[in-house]
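To assess whether ligand presence alters the predicted conformation, the chain was also submitted together with S-adenosylmethionine. Input:
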Amino acid sequence: MVLRRIFDDEFQTAVGRLRVAGAGTEAVAPLLAALVGMVRPRRVLEVGMGYTTPFLAAALAAVQEQASAESAALAAKTRRHLAGGGDLQDSWLFGDPPLVSPEFHLSSYLPCLVAVDNLSLAGSSAGQVADVLAELHLDHLVTVVNRDLHEAVEALPAHCTPIDFAWVDAWECLYFFDHYWELINPDGGLVAMHYLLTYPEGEAVLRYLKKFQQAHPTEVEITSLLEPHKLMQNSVTLLRRTSGLVNRDHLGTAGHVRYTEALTRAAGTHARMATESSNTPAIAGSDQR
Ligand SMILES: C[S@@+](CC[C@H](N)C(=O)[O-])C[C@H]1O[C@@H](n2cnc3c(N)ncnc32)[C@H](O)[C@@H]1O
């Protein structure tokens, strides 16, 4: 299981020091890690550091390791298949690693997490995060920006935009939407906002987002998850930016993959690139976008 590390004793002991009762992210943190494991964002932004930060970083590290092994295995599978002289077909698709898209692996998975916090909240564990990341050997993945969100755009490293995944936990969801939405990847970039349900100002932000959605129906999908057993800090709202979705139409009717020229070309190119990089797991120097 790719995310097993977030459940091990060493990790739990270290992140336990960042746990703040009122932050309410004990269920959200593993959820964020699972989302990273599923959507594999390369460029991640967190606003409001603390308990959640090492979960995001650990998930990115785990996906990086998984993607690297997967890329090597995919290249080997494609090479074996092409050496047999055949076109791509179901035996290639279902061979190990099954169902994997060569297109995803045309660029190496080299993730970055930018974590923004202005250290304004007394009682927040944001100031201790760097030590915990270092202890867990995850600090190389994280750029900490100790600035106000209102002044953080210019401090975002260029290679960390467009943002594939943002986690906003700083009472700044409205500002974030108005000022950072254009930085979210239009091809399905995700924004997770903490705690908009069950209190008046949060519900007002949600109404604002839904009005935007009504006016721009192809821009955004919105859903909220409620923790019904909690009195506050009890929800996550997910926004998915959809204004520039890339067509991934490999599927034909009845769920069968169509082995198009583009798919065959991508598989061949990926296998060649992997060979040229001396079968190292990451394909060095390739473009991240
Ligand atoms: C609720 S805490 C974050 C909790 C954290 N995600 C966790 O799981 O423990 C909110 C954090 O946002 C920071 N913050 C609040 N307003 C901010 C702003 N305008 N810009 C940057 N950081 C801000 C605070 O310093 C605080 O550390």
